[in-house]
Amino acid sequence: MDIASFVGFLLSHILVLLAMATPLAFFDVPSVLIVVGGTIGLMLFSFPLQNTLSASRYFGYAFIPPKPGSDNSKVIGELEIGIVYFEKMKSYAQASGWVGTLIGLILILGSMEDPAAIGPSVAVALRTAFYGILIAYWICLPISTKLQFRLDELKKAS
User: CA neighbours within 13 Å on the CB side: how many for 134?
Assistant: First the structure.
């Protein structure tokens, strides 16, 4: 197990949660549906089902390097697919976050005569951008970076 990956993943997420003071205030079902649902849907649309079902294996390579003596050509292929997979997921999470932001802004403009409705619409706009950025930069980018590192190490060893 790669301790640096594990510690870095936990540390970055725990520090963000601690900075939130009240993490549940940042949770919003419509925003989660827009960003997480949109990202998953776009991944399913973009990749064969088998690749989507293998995402946890690609994710695992960020924490557990391939074992010496593994079928290098198979592992190299999985790492290459994993890198593309998480780079695309990063883009789709960001895009879904921005779509949610636009939805929130449209809701704001549609409720200008009702000041009480503006707050929840602003929350949707901001939370979706927040979720998209967190998924993109706190999960997908570090994973694709680590997978690229693993791929480079494996190719040098071959």
Answer: 19
Cβ contacts of residue 158 below 8 Å, gap of 6+?
72
Give the span between the Cα atoms of 96 and 150, in whole angstroms: 29
Flag residues of the chain having pLDDT under 50.
none
> How many CB atoms within 10 Å of residue 145?
14
Q: CA 90 to CA 97: how far, in whole Å?
A: 11
Give, as one character, the DSSP assignment of residue 8: H
> What pLDDT, in 10s, does the model give residues 71-94?
888 999 999 999 999 999 999 999
The CA angle 27-36-49, to the nearest 5 degrees, is 155
